[in-house]
Amino acid sequence: MSSHEACCGTMFWVYLLSCAGLVMFAGLMSGLTLGLMSLSLVDLEVLAKAGTPQDRRNAARILPVVKNQHLLLCTLLIGNSLAMEALPIFLDSLVPSFGAILISVTLILAFGEIMPQAICTRYGLSMGAKAAPIVRVLLVVFFPVAYPISKLLDWLLGKGHVALMRRAELKTLVDMHGDAEHWR
After folding, report:
1. Rounded CA gap, 91 and 107, in Å?
2. What percent of the chain has a predicted confidence (pLDDT) above 70?
3. What is the pTM of this model?
4. Separation between Cα atoms, residue 106 and residue 110, nearest integer Å
5. Which pLDDT band holds residue 1 (cuts at 50, 70, 90)?
6. Cα–Cα distances in Å, from 94 out to 49, 117, 137?
7. Is the dihedral of CA 162, 150, 152, 82 positive or negative?
8. So what's the pLDDT on residue 84?
9. How far is residue 54's CA from residue 63's CA, in Å, rounded to a whole number?
10. 9 φψ region: left (φ > 0), alpha (ψ -120 to 50), beta (else)
11. Where is the CNNM transmembrane domain (predicted)?
12. Which of 45, 23, 55, 41 is closest to 123 using CA atoms?
C-alpha cells in the first residue's frame, strides 16, 4: 500500500501539478497525432503555395515537421504513451490505487483524447503550426526510440503515403468547387 501525500503540502502540489501537466501533454500529443497526420503532404504543399496568407504561413511551419510521417507518428505516440502511463503513478501518491485508476482514465479520456482530437480536427493546421517548435524538440528527444521504429514502418509499409487523386476524383473535386454555391 502506497503512502499518500497530505493535502496542501509542497509535495501534494508538485504531484497535482505534475498530473495536470501530464494530462495536458497527453492531450497535446493526441490532438497533434490526429491533426498533423490527417494533413496530407500534397494538401500542405498546395496550401503553402496557394492558400490564404495565414494558411501559407501555417503550412510552411508544418511541412518540415510532417515530411517524415512515420517518425512524426512514432514520436507523438511515444509522448502520448509516456504521459498516459505516468499519470496513474503520480495520482497514486495522492489517492488510493482504485481512485488513481478511475481518475486517470476519466481525465485521459476527456482531456487527453476527446477534447484535443475534437479541437485539432477543426483547427489542425493552426494548432500544428503553433506546436511545431515543441514537436521539433520532441523529435530530437524521442529520436533514439522513434527512429528505429519509424524505419521499420517505412520498410513494412513503404515510405510516405502520398494521397494522389485519380482522374475521376479530381474531376469531382473540381466540379464540387465550381458548384460552391451549392455547399454554402
Report:
1. 11
2. 85
3. 0.83
4. 6
5. very low
6. 51, 28, 31
7. negative
8. 94
9. 14
10. beta
11. 8-184
12. 55
Give the cell for residue 125.
493546421
Half-sphere exposure of 168 (CA within 13 A, CB side): 0
| DSSP code of residue 164 | P
Residue 63: exposure state from Cβ atoms within 10 A (0-12, 13-18, ≥19): middle
Burial 149-168 (b: 16+ CB within 10 A, else e): bbeebeeeeeeeeeeeeeee
Place of cell 466540379: 175
Closest CA to 40 of 64, 66, 65: 66
Cell numbers of 98, please? Answer: 482504485
Q: Which residue has the cell 477534447?
A: 115
Q: Cα(170)–Cα(179) distance, rounded to whole angstroms?
A: 14
Say yes or no to pLDDT of 40 above 50. Answer: yes
Instruction: Look up residue 41 and give its amino acid.
Output: L
